[in-house]
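Field log, afternoon session.

UNIT: design team B
ACTIVITY: writing a sequence onto a fixed backbone
BACKBONE:
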């Protein structure tokens, strides 16, 4: 297995997948989403691995889509880029959900856009107290993808989801815990230990029953998820053709407020 953008190791019966683009705040590109899929597939096939941890290196868990790459194609064919990226992201999301082995997100830092969707796809979420969460898509003139519109409404409800979509606040780890986005908040230096404690507890449990239980949960969301991520992908592609998207992207990179015209 040739992985370029993630680290993969097995500690006892726990598979640990670590997003490893720290200089880019673990921004998602096609290689990264493909590597997450490959590592998840390896974890699913392994007889040794009975639970999985997904985390990041550096200051971010995953800051969202790679906006530098987005800027490179903004004047050529941005929808084509996002079409490829969302297809790759969606494979990773489905792999997380379809794995019968429970997946714990150990959220070590900033979470935004596609990183938000990846974290929410996991079965359990533990956040460092320093973690920050931002929906981010709509502030760029795009729409959510990666199952955001499936996972987040089920976790926090319709009203709070609308706050994310239309106001795009930055929330801290304690706020994320209060609204049900994460299961636990710990000090940054305790995150790995806390995630391993849960992962080892799961690995010692009735993992066949856990897998069956996860599939039962999936039965309630997977038909909706598979349909919705395709609708999200089409939405991102369409939004990429608007005049607001290049303005949102440029404004973000220039660290200024965007001037949207609603077109």
């Amino acid at each position: 297995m040739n992985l370029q953008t993630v680290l993969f190791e097995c500690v006892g019966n726990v598979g640990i997948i670590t997003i490893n683009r720290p200089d880019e705040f673990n921004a998602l590109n096609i290689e990264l989403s493909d590597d997450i899929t490959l590592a998840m597939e390896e974890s699913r096939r392994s007889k040794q691995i009975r639970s999985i941890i997904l985390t990041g290196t550096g200051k971010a868990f995953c800051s969202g889509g790679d906006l530098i790459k987005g800027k490179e194609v903004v004047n050529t064919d941005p929808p084509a880029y996002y079409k490829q990226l969302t297809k790759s992201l969606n494979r990773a999301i489905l792999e997380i959900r379809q794995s019968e082995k429970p997946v714990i997100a150990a959220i070590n830092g900033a979470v935004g856009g596609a990183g938000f969707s990846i974290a929410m796809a996991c079965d359990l979420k533990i956040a460092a107290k320093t973690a920050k969460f931002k929906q981010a898509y709509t502030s760029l003139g795009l729409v959510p993808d990666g199952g955001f519109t499936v996972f987040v409404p089920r976790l926090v409800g319709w009203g709070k989801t609308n706050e994310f979509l239309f106001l795009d606040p930055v929330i801290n780890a304690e706020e994320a815990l209060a609204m049900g986005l994460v299961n636990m908040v710990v000090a940054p230096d305790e995150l790995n230990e806390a995630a391993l404690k849960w992962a080892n507890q799961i690995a010692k449990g009735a993992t066949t029953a856990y897998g069956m239980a996860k599939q039962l949960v999936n039965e309630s969301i997977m038909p909706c998820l598979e349909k919705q991520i395709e609708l999200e992908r089409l939405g991102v592609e369409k939004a990429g053709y608007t005049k607001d998207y290049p303005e949102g992207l440029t404004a973000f990179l220039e660290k200024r407020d965007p001037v949207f015209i609603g077109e």
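LOG NOTE: The mean pLDDT is 93.
NEXT ACTIVITY: expression trials, pending approval
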